[in-house]
Write a structure and sequence with these properties.
The structure is a homodimer. By secondary structure, chain A is an alpha/beta fold. Chain A has a 7-stranded parallel sheet. In chain A, α1 links the parallel β1 and β2. In chain A, α5 crosses α7 and α8 packs parallel to α10. About 3% of the residues of chain A have low confidence.
Chain lengths: 236, 236
């Protein structure tokens, strides 16, 4: 099994094609797109993909990042900037080892890449379990989307088969189940006017979700947590 | 000190620009060209180089590979194919370590890249001390020139001094604070008869605490969570 590469709101068809080619070069078959700017399919992507066009034929398109990661159990968000989000950050090489370990354990894992000009929004990063950063020269840190994909994918390939970590932790729940729990918790916190100052909600809610994501809850734990939230609110 | 990147008979200006950009991304300042097909300077290279155009201004052009490596003490030739030439072959990662060691010892070192369509000729490879090969998927081994440069350069950079991870994670809260949160949560869950079957409490409660411990909450997050528990129970 392999990883999924997810391009979030990519702008240039050429970069989608180059990323598809890099996927093929490094043995990755699952390329996903979230809301590509110029629609899909895109002839410029085909031009750049070379012989990797078969991979473009199988590319799936989603409207939102949440939908694109719904079946994933571990997600990393590629970013060049340090972030105010409370989540683990892995350099590309460490990330490759982590991804290999999880794939070896049978998990579905994905790496997100942001749009060319702006990178990932905080909302996208919050769909991830951690941040992947690419070590670059501080004088000239801006990597092109396709080049960032090449670095991540070549590290993934070079990390090769790594024996699974002997870890008693259960499998993390699919993202869609976590989202269900988040929706429930948000609804209840809204109902009790938890935020008090509405402007504070965004940051507070982001931190709460980031904390819960770090816990890597299993499906059974998510069910327990949902029951707990319901019970605290007086349901049965 | 750093390495020299030498593009031998490059065909596309775009690839020269992309290679210059990758040099800048990974801290390499010395780009050399051997007999570029479309002459030099090349406006298409400038278009692709982004802010790395200062590096293009300093690019030196040679007529032959032998002249381009004349001042170098150790040279590797990038190639995707196995060769009938009897010389050491290093995978990109090993090569990066070898190059770092030699640069640290004060040597002038260079990496050769061949033309897009054909790769390096045997005559070029014979100017090198060894071959550098990039591990790729056997089903789709053909790397674009600029992407090959990204792999070699990112390996070079990663082999050097890597800055500490830009990890935004705060310090985990002291255990006593977590215990306070656990006590509060347990009291509230008891109050709403969450456990229903008393024999189940021990295991469920252990799992809930384990999930929260895994989140490595900071002191501030613990405070937020305590407020959240209180609010869900109808407190203010």
């Amino acid at each position: 099994m392999s990883i999924s590469i997810i391009l979030v709101r990519p702008q240039m068809g050429e970069n989608i094609g180059a990323a598809a080619r890099a996927c093929a070069n490094f043995g990755v078959r699952d390329l996903r797109l979230v809301a590509p700017r110029d629609g899909w399919p895109n002839p410029k992507a085909v031009d750049m993909a070379g012989r990797a066009i078969d991979l473009l034929d199988e590319t799936t398109v989603f409207e939102t990042t949440a939908e694109a990661v719904a079946d994933c159990q571990f997600v990393l968000a590629t970013t060049s900037r340090a972030r105010a989000i409370n989540m683990p950050a892995l350099a590309a090489r460490e990330a490759a080892t982590e991804l290999r370990n999880r794939v070896a354990a049978g998990q579905k894992v994905a790496v997100l890449f942001g749009p060319e000009r702006t990178g990932l929004e905080n909302e996208d990063v919050l769909q991830a379990d951690g941040v992947l950063w690419i070590p670059v020269a501080p004088e000239y840190p801006s990597l092109n989307l396709a080049q960032a994909a090449v670095v991540v994918l070549s590290e993934w390939f070079a990390a090769g088969e790594v024996p699974p970590a002997a870890d008693a932790l259960g499998e993390p729940a699919p993202r869609a189940e976590l989202q269900g729990m988040f929706d429930q918790l948000e609804t209840e916190l809204d109902a009790v006017n938890f935020w008090k100052v509405p402007e504070k909600k965004e940051l507070m809610w982001r931190n709460i979700r980031a904390g819960l994501l770090r816990a890597q809850l299993t499906s059974q734990e998510v069910a327990t947590w949902r029951g707990m939230i319901r019970a605290l609110r007086g349901g049965d």
